[in-house]
Amino acid sequence: MNTIGVCNQEDLIKWLTLTTIKGVTPREWLDVIEKNSISLDHLFTGNWQPQVNHQAELPEKLAQLIRAADLQRIEQSLEWQSQETLNQLVSIDCSSYPEMLKQLCSPPLVLFVRGNERLISQPSIALVGSRRCTHAGKQIAQEFARQLAELGWSVVSGLATGIDAAAHQGALHGQAKTIAVTGTGPDKIYPARNQKLHHSIVEQGGTIVSEFWPGTPPRACHFPRRNRIIAALSTGTVVIEAAIKSGTLITANLAIDLGREVFAVPGNIYNSTSEGCHHLIQQGAKLVFKVEDIIEEFACVPSQLALQGVDESQKSPCENLATDELLDSVDFDVTAVDVIAERNKLSVSEVLATLLEYELRGCVAAVPGGYVKLRGKKNVRHPHVSI
């Protein structure tokens, strides 16, 4: 659309106005603007001509709807924004609005963001799963989230009990932090037992995101809408324990529809919380049991990865091992680790540490018997799953 740019308060109020109008979806408002090549200002004045002749009365009809907007709700939202600097309203024409979210059929016109606003546009992976998870499932979620955050990936989840909460907790111990997408207004915490976690996410540099107005309580119909935002914000979605009929599989299905990577952790075949994961694997999702299984599907690691952001003069001797010379010593055929060590006159432990860095960057791959150099960037596979 032709209005995308840095948002201002006047435009923000207009987007809030459109959001209050019942019976017209965000996609319908965006279609009117895009298909008729008009600006947001023209939409509000009614001073434009529709491209389709039989819709000549459309401008005036839409102008009437706009005049009937819920001004009280708009004021409440602006008041919420003014309460703290951590509270932000991000409209779809803001430069900080996530581009990946615009791939939704009907993306939210306004996001209510509390915390680190920049985080919602950075590379992220969703970790989702059952509320009634096993102790092992919680451990997996925490460890996966911590490792992903250490590698620069923000971790997205839904602030529910069980796997969601464990994922947020694990990510808080990493570098890239976590994003909690809620099914309530930005000022409501659900479930109440996650109040401490909610505050920790904001205080430690994470973000709370919602498309619902301040004061909105939890409702069953809100959570599928929340799930679509989780799927859209994330480069990939990892499912850790899920029943066949669950909101978690809805999130996975939405990720598939968006062409995103989907991963599933296998579990006990006698446990109902593993059925959803096994179903996804049968349908083509990638089976994973370690973080490396996830990140190897992506051509590169996030730009904020510490290994890429450290100044060369400040690197330790071990970090400086990641040179082109060592990479050149890895053949396109299988090269044993001891051979690589001999070629570079380094210890095996030093070489393994460096090879792990190269593997994370997509330059080499571990295979039986050693490592092979990859020819150019890795191809990213998208599982074609029909659920």
From TrEMBL:
Residues 323-370 form the DprA winged helix domain. InterPro entries: DprA, DprA_WH, DrpA_SLOG, WH-like_DNA-bd_sf. Residues 90-298 form the Smf/DprA SLOG domain. Belongs to the DprA/Smf family. This is DNA-processing protein DprA. It comes from Alteromonas aquimaris.
